[in-house]
């Protein structure tokens, strides 16, 4: 790998997001000596994350929080007005939106993530499946184009065999996903998934796949520079989920064999190379009871569970994202990965997502005022927080 390509350091970086990931971005930028900018909706005026940036500006005063953080034009306008060099999208919201990446590119603002043409391929699950097939990587049986209506969904479900799962082709994070056990459930669920996908990601395209019973959900962390150098940072096990939302993640994934581990990591790099991937990303697989594995999607962004990988590799992934966007190679001294063998893993790490839920109401999301707040601590404990403290109001938005 080349070491001499240094790029140009950013002076000011915006986090187009909220909560803990915004704070995480600000921390990485602070470590690098880069100034930071926060944007916040009216409802987030007193949220902790905006106080962690050097500058903060309200966005979408007359819009809902979702509408504010999805307003590409307004975000770009604020960035240009305050001379922002780069925007980090975090996860969720616009993080996988090719139009947002393209708007940044056209405005002369660096997008801290893959380029727009890569997002168009990998941000869409159907396109990503076709790329995996082209690489010879196994995929779950399912549709290859968006489904037109519920009747087509039923016909496909019958051909695959029940149970099946309906999925949004855009976005991630467990939204726009519903398991269906029979034809009637497909008919009833189709409009719900379509509506949820449109609301969450601005795209109502959905597809259908065979639902694998009790698989292991294994994902591989990828890091790639702008010059074709790509490495993996090993795998994570994210099998413990509720309502398709990951609850506990850990590494190493002890439930899979070393042989499967190596094959999955190699295939993850293969897919990333096929599309000319740049920056951080995660390639996700399902492993069935017999040891067969299947590519399901690539998340072309940082993920919530990046923390466990950082703990066992000692690689600051968010910091590396900024450096890569500045034009640094993986082999540059600031990152220090000349070859795959330079990535070492030691020990193990486990992450638990702590959210406000009502255990007496099927763990539904809960709201109200936090009257007491005490976090875990001590040697080896890491806390990535951003929304909760004693006195905080947890709202529905």
Describe what this molecule looks like in 3D:
It is a single chain. This protein is α+β, with helices and mostly antiparallel strands and 397 residues long. It folds into 3 domains: 12-112, Rossmann fold (3-Layer(aba) Sandwich), CATH 3.40.50; 141-210, 2-Layer Sandwich (Dna Ligase, domain 1), CATH 3.30.1490.20; 213-352, ATP-grasp fold, B domain (D-amino Acid Aminotransferase, Chain A, domain 1, 2-Layer Sandwich). It is built from 11 helices and 18 strands. The strands form 5 sheets. The protein has a 6-stranded antiparallel beta sheet, with helices on both faces. Helix 4 (98-106) packs antiparallel against helix 5 and helix 7 crosses helix 8 (183-201). The longest helix is centred in the middle third of the chain and has 19 residues, at 183-201. The model has no long low-confidence stretch (mean pLDDT 93).
């Amino acid at each position: 790998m080349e070491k001499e390509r240094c790029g140009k350091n950013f002076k000011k970086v915006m986090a187009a997001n909220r909560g803990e990931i915004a704070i995480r971005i600000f921390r990485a930028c602070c470590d690098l000596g880069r100034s930071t900018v926060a944007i916040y909706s009216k409802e987030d005026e007193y949220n902790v994350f905006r106080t962690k940036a050097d500058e903060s500006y309200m966005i979408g005063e007359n819009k809902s929080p979702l509408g504010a953080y999805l307003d590409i034009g307004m975000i770009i306008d604020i960035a240009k007005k305050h001379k922002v060099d780069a925007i980090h999208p975090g996860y969720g919201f616009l993080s996988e939106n090719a139009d947002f990446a393209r708007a940044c590119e056209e405005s002369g603002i660096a997008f801290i993530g893959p380029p727009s043409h890569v997002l168009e391929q990998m941000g869409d699950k159907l396109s990503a499946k076709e790329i995996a097939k082209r690489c010879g990587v196994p995929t779950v049986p399912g549709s290859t184009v968006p489904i037109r209506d519920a009747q087509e969904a039923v016909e496909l479900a019958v051909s695959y065999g029940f149970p099946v799962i309906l999925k949004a082709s855009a976005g991630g994070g467990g939204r726009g996903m519903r398991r269906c056990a029979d034809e009637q459930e497909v008919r009833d669920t189709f409009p719900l998934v379509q509506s949820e996908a449109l609301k969450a990601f601005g795209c109502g395209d959905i597809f259908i796949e065979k639902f694998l019973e009790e698989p292991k959900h294994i994902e591989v962390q990828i890091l790639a520079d702008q010059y074709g150098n790509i490495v993996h940072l090993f795998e994570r096990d994210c099998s413990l989920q509720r309502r398709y939302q990951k609850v506990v993640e850990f590494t190493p994934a002890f439930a899979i064999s070393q042989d499967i581990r190596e094959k999955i990591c190699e295939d993850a790099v293969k897919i990333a190379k096929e599309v000319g991937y740049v920056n951080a990303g995660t390639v996700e697989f399902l492993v069935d009871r017999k040891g067969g594995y299947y590519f399901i999607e690539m998340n072309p962004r940082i993920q919530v569970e990046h923390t466990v990988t950082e703990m066992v590799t000692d690689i600051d992934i968010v910091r590396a994202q900024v450096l890569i966007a500045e034009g640094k190679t993986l082999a540059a001294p600031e990152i220090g990965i000349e070859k795959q063998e330079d990535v070492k893993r030691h020990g193990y790490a486990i992450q638990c997502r702590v959210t406000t839920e009502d255990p007496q109401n099927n763990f539904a999301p809960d709201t109200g005022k936090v009257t007491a707040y005490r976090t875990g601590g001590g040697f080896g404990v890491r806390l990535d927080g951003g929304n909760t403290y004693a006195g905080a109001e947890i709202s529905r938005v």
